[in-house]
Amino acid sequence: MQFLKSGWQASTSWHRNITDIKGFNTFQRIYLVVIMLTTIMAFIYTGDYSPAGIASMLTGLALAFYLILLASGRITNFFWGLLTTGMWFIISVHNHLIGDMINQAFFFVMQFVGMYAWQKQLVKQANQTMIESKKLSRPKIGFSIVGAGLLYFVVLAFAKGGHGNQYYLDSAQLPLGVLAQILATYGYFSSWIVWLAVDAVGLLLWWNQIQDGGMAAIGMFILMIVKTINAFYGMYLWAKNPQH
Fold first, then answer.
1. Average pLDDT in the 105-127 region?
2. Closest Cα partner for 45 from 202, 228, 216, 227?
3. What would the pLDDT profile of 153-167 be if each residue is shown by its tens digit?
4. 11, HSE (Cβ side, Cα atoms, 13 Å)
5. How far apart are CA 154 and CA 75, in angstroms?
6. 202-230 pLDDT, tens digit each
7. pLDDT for 244 beyond 50
8. What's the rounded Cα separation, in Å, for the pair 80 and 35?
9. Predicted local distance difference test score (pLDDT) of residue 79
């Protein structure tokens, strides 16, 4: 519990958040501004001033900080992750995407697990501010694929039973998201490869919601584009910072 407590304090510390944000390089600052402007412009363009539309915009703004801090290996990403996943869950409820609801609920809980795991690893490292990435072994790769496949069919059964939208596609988000989040939580480089798969599913899912006139769908589709770009950026940064 000590690592969870200290991880919570580190990730929610305003001083540490401000320090990490001030430490953004030129690319990250430009990237942050682009994400935020795109989110605000999408909100104005769609004219969706419903609670779901406002939640979509706020999610995008919080997501901007979450993605950059996560890619940078900063523990403060979990504070922004809590904000992002909480608001994303609300939007999924409005769009009746059962798989995505379960997905975001899982992500919300995993922010606390991440605080514990990252703080524990940072204590072991000489570098106390940025987590070092690890390589996933072949046996673990096989176990991960089998586990994600089994979870997919479980979620699919729930989604069908709950009469959710796009349940075949929607159900793929949770197993992929679970795998990506667990790998990211324990600092594995492979997490970014799985995040790309998660984002690909999300792009298709929210594009279909746009066609069906889903609430806040355009804003969420733009957020998925941003997440996809960030997955490539995170892959680049974590490849440069392997575990010694």
1. 85
2. 216
3. 887 777 666 666 666
4. 31
5. 32
6. 888 888 878 776 656 777 788 788 888 88
7. no
8. 15
9. 95
Residue 4: DSSP 8-state: H
**Is it the case that residue 120 has pLDDT exceeding 60?**
yes
> Tokens 């001083």 — which residue?
15
pTM greater than the 0.85 cutoff: no
Output the DSSP codes for 65-131: HHHHHHHTT-TTHHHHHHHHHHHHHHHHHHTT-HHHHHHHHHHHHHHHHHHHHHHHHHHHSS-SSSP
Tokens representing 196 are 């790309």
Q: How many CB atoms lie within 10 A of CB 217?
A: 23
Query: What is the rounded distance in angstroms from the CA atom of residue 94 to the CA atom of residue 181?
Result: 24
How many of the other CB atoms lie within 10 Å of CB of 30?
A: 11
Phi-psi map region of 88: left, alpha, beta (phi>0 left; psi -120 to 50 alpha): alpha
Copy the structure tokens of residue 234: 């995170």
Type of residue numbered 81:
G
Q: Classify residue 150 by its DSSP letter.
A: H
Q: Where are the beta strands (DSSP E) in the chain?
A: none
